[in-house]
Amino acid sequence: MRSREPAICLRTTDYSETSQVVHFLTRQTGVVRLLAKGTKRPKSKSGGAIDLLSEGDLLFSAKDAETLGVLMEFSETSSHTALRRDAKRLNTALYMLELVHEMLAEGDPHPAVFDLLHRALQRLGQEDAPVPAVLAYFQWRLLRHVGLLGGLDACVSCGLCVGEMSDRAGVYFSSRLGGLLCDGCEGSQREKFHLEPATLEALATLAVAEVGRRVSLPDPPARSVNRLLGYHIAQQLGKRLKMARHVLGELGDGLFSNDV
């Protein structure tokens, strides 16, 4: 079945001297794996090898999620040249691609995730974009879309609300239990992530942003949120993502101290 959809290139591998296997996130079909014949030729219909981050209009033929489809035409509309000029922005964008590729099953449509990634890449390409805040919001929304954000309103063990927890000795997040733990319940859990008060405030800010209100998230708390969400994602996937070392490593060497 032929389909024409907007698409973003998530991953590429060489198939032969002239061809590639390209993983795209499409808006209506989700992640698709396509054999891109002859794309590495300079005179190919795509204008050359398809690169990561490339966005465009994709015409493809695919049977099911387990069968390699065929790329018929790809007309690039954006290569995100601006964000490629800065290593920090580029690495963050590549981390976002890896997150989407790892967290979405092939052939599982998520139009909201496509729109989220599209907007995040555009924002990262703007010189005034606060990179940690853009990444924090992206990770937060992606986890929300795939149903893995966890409970952030109260202790998942005793039900103590977050407002009461903030007045006590400590607040923790358990990826295994999927939510916050107060200091009275955290002792029995080996796997947990300690949250500073500023991190809790930043999470509340993201919740406000999620409903459409304009907010400001300064770098330090945004970095704290990225530590937390990066840890949670690693726990859920059972591994550290390749680009996380480059993007989240500067946020703290102890990020993955509780890895599975």
How would you describe this protein?
With 260 residues, the protein is an alpha+beta fold. It has two domains: 2-129, OB fold (Dihydrolipoamide Acetyltransferase, E2P) (Beta Barrel), CATH 2.40.50; 143-251, no CATH class. The protein has helices at 81-84, 87-103, 111-124, 131-145, 162-165, 197-210, 219-237, 244-247; strands spanning 2-14, 20-26, 30-36, 55-61, 69-78, 151-155, 171-174, 179-182, 193-195. The strands form two sheets. It has a five-stranded mixed β-barrel with strand order 1-2-3-5-4. Strands 6-8-7-9 form a four-stranded mixed β-sheet. Strand 7 and strand 8 (179-182) form a beta hairpin. Helix 2 (87-103) runs parallel beside helix 4. It is elongated and about 65 Å long.
